[in-house]
Amino acid sequence: MFSLFKSKIKPPREDWVNPKIEICETKKRGKGLFASQPINKGTVVIIWGGNYVNKKQADIAKNRGMLVMQFDDNLFSIEDRGESDAYFINHSCNPNVWMKDAFRLETMRDVKIGEELTADYILWETDENKISKWKCECGAFNCRQVITGKDYLLPELQKKV
Description:
The structure is a single chain. By secondary structure, this protein is mainly β. The chain has a domain at 16-123: Beta-clip-like. It contains 2 helices and 11 strands. The strands form 3 sheets. Strands 1-4-10-9 form a 4-stranded antiparallel sheet, with no helix packed on it. Strands 2-3-11-8 form a 4-stranded mixed sheet, with no helix packed on it. The termini are close together.
């Protein structure tokens, strides 16, 4: 986890999505983010901004059906589902996007035109007891099928950090 309190990074106010990305329909997962132009490795593709709250406020928002993402022990982002284009990044066990810092996602390799940008949802899971209610069908050679809060312990995921 990134600690904002130890960092000089200020939470941005608004989301930003790289203009080389567009939202398109996927075959199996509804909408997703796709490269409309080639994107080089190390390019920032999303910056998450928004409404940052503490755990108590996040729990209230979650009970109201809002999307809640945890960034630190007591730092959460809340938004309505589908409110931001950044919301449409789908999961893959073999992603091409990873966290650069607490708010920025960058490409891990070159991304071709038409390729979907994906992230491993373990990036935002802090509850070690969490087990996904959905079965992963990303089709990656290393697909875990079930995403858990302990996946961060897997050696292959730790190498990506």
